[in-house]
Amino acid sequence: MKTPWPALETIPGLIALPISWRNKIGEHFENFSALCLRPSQWLPRSYPCPRDPGCAFRILPVAHASQITCQDSFIGICERCPPECPNLTLTRADITPLELNWEKLARALCQALGLDTKISKLQIPHTIQIGSWSADAVPVLLTIQTERRHFRHAVCELIARLHQRFILLAPTSQHFDALCQELLSGANAALFPLESIVTLTPNGNLLPTKTPGELFAKFAPEEKLPEDAALRAFAILKSMDTDTPVRKASVFSVFRLYCMENLSAEQVAKRLRCSKGSVINRLALIRQKTGVDPEKLRAYSAQFTGIEQSLSDSRAPRISRQTATEDSDSE
Amino acid sequence: MRALHLALTLDPLRTNGPDALDVRGIPEIRHITLREVQFVRDNAFHETITRRADDLFRCSAVDYENEPVVPADAVLVHAFFDIQFADSPQPRSLLLRLPSTIKVEQDADAPVIHRFLCERGFALSRSGEEARSA
Predict the structure, then answer these.
(1) d(CA A30, CA A37)
(2) What gap in Å lies between CA B93 and CA A68, rounded to an integer?
(3) Are A163 and A189 in contact (CB under 8 A)?
(4) In degrees rounded to 5, what are phi and psi of residue A226?
(5) How far apart are alpha carbons B52 and B25 in whole angstroms?
(6) Which residues in B lie closer than 8 A to residue A12 (C-beta atoms)?
(7) Helices in chain A by DSSP H: which ranges?
(8) A226 — contact with chain B (CB < 8 Å)?
(9) CB–CB of A62/A70 below 8 Å?
């Protein structure tokens, strides 16, 4: 059975005549139309030829004997000279294009997936924010692209602009290649294809295939370290660089790449041009000094980033490494 | 150019890429180059795009990092090829236009071209009788 979602990735501009939508969506046309299509104000000049894809019928209003054109009757004349197909009689409904109603689709998705509705345009082609998830307000975005490279551009632009984890929805995963996967996982983001997370009901509503909590488990609110504990861990690691300087792969650099940027040990080694063994040694040192597994520290990456940003602000109060480490010793 | 008629599809260009033009098993042809495609974007505007190059597949591989010559959402309308026959130093042209038009430069090329179209999946019917002069 056809699902309606792949059709969205085959219509450039997401506006087409009803016959084109119907051909692509099949039995779901009525439900899908009720869900998120709306008639456009613009009337086209051509009607597709069912016999020859390169040809079309020219649409003209029907003129009556009184020379007054009828507003709702049209005639389709074969563009070929001489004409190869007989004229077509068309109604206004036949030639009124249907376009995607982004807002309506966004609201239906938010309702089905338990999101807080926040619709905003991002100036990225065919990409909008539809809502947010959880108490952390993780942005949920919808992108509909007809070509793989456009999908990749949208992913890159989202990562460059948002600087935080996000949930990306797309009709299908057909444009989701290894590069996009790498980009999204590096940004703590993930793609959820609509064709696998929602189903369209006969009355034009959407139902999730799993509970939203299960679907977006990875994006559950982040557990936070107490402010002072996070600050202390950060300070300990920062101070280790000055107390025991090393030539390659400083402890803080490893902490930064592994815990804050979520790179693997191998990627960190590559980035710092050292051996993977050196990285593993530094991770062991981080575990020893902070008492927390570096893997678990990744859960607080946003918090560490916040601390780092506040410390880099010239107006921020200076962190006292000595005080921080003394406090930890006294505990 | 002489026109023949045979039910056609241009889908092999999309699904098989340059392999659609493989001429192994047809000794009369040395190689075939895709020179031009025309396709329609399937939306309300009936946008028609023609892409032309000396070698479209090679151009796409170099310039567009192997992006397909024809976008996935487009409907192919016609394709123009240069065919280098074994008996001639000059390539001869072949035009395939959906749904069923084949234009060849020389009548004598028709049987070989028909065999190529059938073997590479461009002909929807394998019956040689269908190819009749227009």
Answers:
(1) 10
(2) 50
(3) no
(4) -55, 145
(5) 28
(6) 41-43, 47, 73
(7) 5-8, 18-25, 29-36, 92-95, 102-113, 148-162, 178-186, 194-197, 212-215, 227-243, 251-255, 265-272, 276-290, 294-297, 301-312, 321-330
(8) no
(9) yes
* Mutation for A interface: B10, B36, B38, B45, most A CBs within 10 A: B45
Q: Would B66 be classed as within a structural domain?
A: no
Write phi, then psi, for B52 (nearest 5 degrees): -135, 135
Q: Is the peptide bond preceding residue A4 cis, with omega within 30 degrees of 0?
A: no
CA distance B121 to B117: 6
B62 Cβ contact partners less than 8 Å away, ≥ 6 residues apart: none
Backbone angles phi, psi at A19, to 5 degrees: -65, -35
Token pair 């084109």 is at which residue?
A20
Spatial CB neighbours of A311, under 8 Å, sequence gap ≥ 6: A319
Indicate yes or no: pTM above 0.80. no
Please say whether the beta carbons of A141 and A155 come within 8 A. no
CA angle A245, A246, A249 (to 5 degrees): 125
With residue B62 as reference, give the H or E element that holds it. helix B56-63
Tokens of B33: 């180059």
Measure the CA–CA gap between B33 and B16, rounded to whole angstroms. 14
Q: In this structure, which CATH number among 1.10.10, 1.20.1070, 1.10.510, 2.30.30 belongs to the domain A227-313?
A: 1.10.10
pLDDT tens figures, B2-32: 777 789 999 999 999 999 999 999 999 999 9
pLDDT in tens, A3-44: 899 999 999 999 999 999 999 999 999 999 999 999 999 889
Q: What are phi and psi of A15, to 5 degrees?
A: -140, 125
Q: Please report the ipTM that was assigned to this predicted complex.
A: 0.70
Q: Which tokens sit at A107?
A: 């609201």
Please list every residue in chain A whose beta carbon sits closer than 8 Å to the beta carbon of residue B76.
53
The residues spanned by each domain of chain A are: 11-100, 102-212, 227-313
The letter for the amino acid at A184 is L
Q: Is A59 on the interface with B (CB under 8 A)?
A: no
Q: Does A50 touch chain B (CB under 8 A)?
A: no
Q: Which residues of chain A have pLDDT under 50?
A: 318-331
| Residue B65, in any domain of the structure | no
CATH of domain A102-212: 3.40.1350
